[in-house]
Amino acid sequence: MGILEKIRAPFTAVQVQGLNEYQTGTDFGHKMPPFTCGNRGDDPHGEEGGDKGVLIATEQGWVCPCCEYTQDWAHSFMVSSRTSHMPHFFERVLSTEEKIALVEGLQADYVELRSRRPGAAGISEMLDTLQQRITELKAEL
After folding, report:
1. What pLDDT, in 10s, does the model give residues 7-29?
2. Which 8-state DSSP code applies to residue 34?
């Protein structure tokens, strides 16, 4: 499978985890811009996930938690970006504690978004992704 080869929804649970980690940078791999909503210039799109209008992967495909925007494909490399990154010589490598703090901060942002937009698409999936990542990181301590 080529690096820019597309995968299409429905996504597996493993793909959802990897895609959402990629979207939020919690894979701690090489950071590239996340997929964002085509309507991200409109209110009420926020910056949860580190950029305005970050899409959330679900088994049905990408969704925007702020509007009806969807997308049904991703690049295959986005699923496994956690394992493909080699730090640059000058890149600061985060400690496990710093990684946990970063993921917990993102988790708090999505909890707050859920309180503003109860039932919005994708938020439960993103919170599950972030909780799983926290659990994995804490196991490394």
Report:
1. 999 999 999 999 999 999 999 87
2. P
